Amino acid sequence: MVHDFTLTEADEDMLVGTGLPGRDRARYERSLAMASRTITIPLNERACTLALGAYRADSSSLRPESRAAIERAPKSGLGIAVRDVTCTVDEARDMLDYFRNGADALTTVGNADAPTYADAFDNVRRVLQVAGVIR
């Protein structure tokens, strides 16, 4: 699910003072709008559990705000092990990188959770493609 974005009056005032000419200003406005949009990603409960595992400060963990998006996503009450994670585009990109790296690393060592990471990566990628964030 993709939500519409509208600039607030404060955002408009900030843009006026940017001094960015035509095309650069338009690119800046699109970038600002994209970063503020929220999207909803269906993630398997197992993928959520893995992503919320022990936090490590290295690049093998999600950023805290991305973890928070998963934590606040409601668990399905119908016996379906999926959470609808609503997050910003930046958080979704973080999840995309996390699940891609996890799938690659676990596939290399033959870990049984590799397909869970790969499926989560595919879900995040598809939602970002539909939202027009990536190709």
Keywords, separated by commas or semicolons:
135 residues, mainly alpha, 2 strands, 10% strand, disordered N terminus
Largest sheet: 2 strands, antiparallel
Radius of gyration: 17 Å
Report helical residue fraction.
Answer: 55-70%
Give me the secondary-structure category. Answer: mainly alpha
N-C termini distance: 17 Å
Give the low-confidence spans.
Answer: 1-8, 10-15
Number of strands: 2
Compressed to H and E, one letter per element, the order equals HHEHHEHH
Strand order of the largest sheet: 1-2
Count of discrete structural domains: 2
Can you tell me the overall shape? Answer: globular
Q: Beta fraction of the residues?
A: 5-15%
Supply the number of helical segments.
6
Question: What is the averaged pLDDT score?
Answer: 81
